[in-house]
Structures are given as C-alpha cells and as structure tokens.
Amino acid sequence: MKEYLAPERERVALITIDAQRDFVLPNSPATVGGALSTIPAMRRLIDAFRGAGAPIVHTLRLYRCNGSNVDLCHRAAIEAGQRIVMPGTSGAELIDELKPSLGQRLEPELLLDGKLQEIGHREWLCYKPRLSAFFQTPLEDHLKSLGITTIVLCGTDFPTSPRSTVYAASNRDFRIVLATDAISGATDAGLDELAQIGVYLMSSEQLLNWLKRDRQAA
C-alpha cells in the first residue's frame, strides 16, 4: 500500500515559526512561556539542516505601529500603544542562536512586500501576516519550487502559529513532522490531535538520527 504520510528525507525543509526576540527572550514584552527552553533543540536542528544543505525558512511576524497589518486578536493592543515585533526594532529580529551570522538583520520593507529575504545558503526569512505561515505568503510556492514534500516545524507558540501552520500544511498535502522538544506550549492532547491527522511527532534527537541515517545510506 502506498505511503502518503511518511516524511521524505531527500525532499525535506525546516520551518521555524515566530522565533523572534520579543517572543522568546526573558523580560521581552510578549515572552511566551517555555520558549527559552526550546532554543537548544532548535539550534541543533538548524545546525543539522545547514550541514545537510537542506532548505530552512524562518517565518516571522512584523506589526506596524498603527496596527494596519495586525491580526484582529492583537490589533486593539497595538493600536493602544503596545509595541511588539515592530519593523526595525531589535525585538522583531530572529533570535541570535538561529542566525547564520550575528550581524544579520531583517529587511522589513522587503519582507512586508511579500518577498523572501535570503540570509544564507538555502536559508530565507518569510513574513507572515497571520498565524499560519501559509496565509498570503510565498512559502508554498517557494517550497514546491525546491521540490519539497516534507516540512519539519519548530518554534513558538504551539496553540497559535504552529498549530495553524500544521493544518494549513496538511491542506496543501505536505508531509509534516513536528519537533516536539523544539516547540513551546505543546500539550499531550494537542499533539495527539495532530498525530490523528498524520503528523509525525519526533524529538530533535530522533530527527537528527533520521537525517543521519539518510546521509549514511546515501
């Protein structure tokens, strides 16, 4: 029987979600509980994908200070003066641990214009205007242009953007792996729900072993 859900090692990309300073670092204005503890696992995955030459896309949010591009659940707070992931601020930046070089900075206008920003070999930044990394973004077309069938997801914060992205990816017939220790806010019940729609649940160590086995076999 044909296997439609199993991840394909030779056609895999890593997607990080909202791994930005304002959401991850302690004492930031919108720190997500548990996000800091996921950094080591995310870093291991980043290093492995870079080493394998596999694509990486960092998806992120940018909130204009007037709230014009902000999702409805956060718009009132931004209009009232809350300042998080504002274009051009340090809080909007990808956390240092995931950058290919510490001097790398976002190009907000390029990203807000719907374009990908290349930051390394087969590595890009992608702005997403809503929770899902696929909603009104170039992500799907970009992945398909690279021949990607399988995505590995990690980042912040499971009940919001990661879960929305999983369902959007499933609707687009991507094979999906969730890195369980590289994503904050996950619950057993939530993970069970995703497993029921064919999402593979792996720790970062399991994923590293999976990638290594493929390279050895090759």
Give a topology summary.
Blueprint (H helix, E strand, L loop, with lengths): L11 E6 L3 H4 L14 H14 L3 E5 L11 H8 L28 H5 L4 E4 L2 E5 L11 H7 L4 E6 L5 H11 L3 E9 L4 H8 L4 E3 L1 H14 L1
Helix pairs in contact: 2-8
Main beta sheet, described? Answer: 7 strands, mixed
**Helix share, percent:** 25-40%
Oligomer: single chain
Stretches with pLDDT under 50, minimum 5 residues: none
Radius of gyration from CA coordinates:
16 Å
Strand residue percentage: 15-25%
- Shape field: globular
Taken in chain order, the helices and strands follow as: EHHEHHEEHEHEHEH
Mean pLDDT across all residues, rounded?
95
Number of strands: 7
Spatial arrangement of strands, main beta sheet: 3-4-2-1-5-6-7
Structural class: alpha/beta
**Helical segment count:** 8
N/C terminus separation: 25 Å
Question: How is this structure best described in words?
Answer:
With 218 residues, this protein is α/β, with parallel strands linked by helices. It is 33% helix and 17% strand. Strands 3-4-2-1-5-6-7 form a seven-stranded mixed sheet, sandwiched between helices. The longest helix is centred in the N-terminal third of the chain and has 14 residues, at 39-52. It is globular, with a radius of gyration of 16 Å. The two termini are 25 Å apart. 39% of the residues are buried.
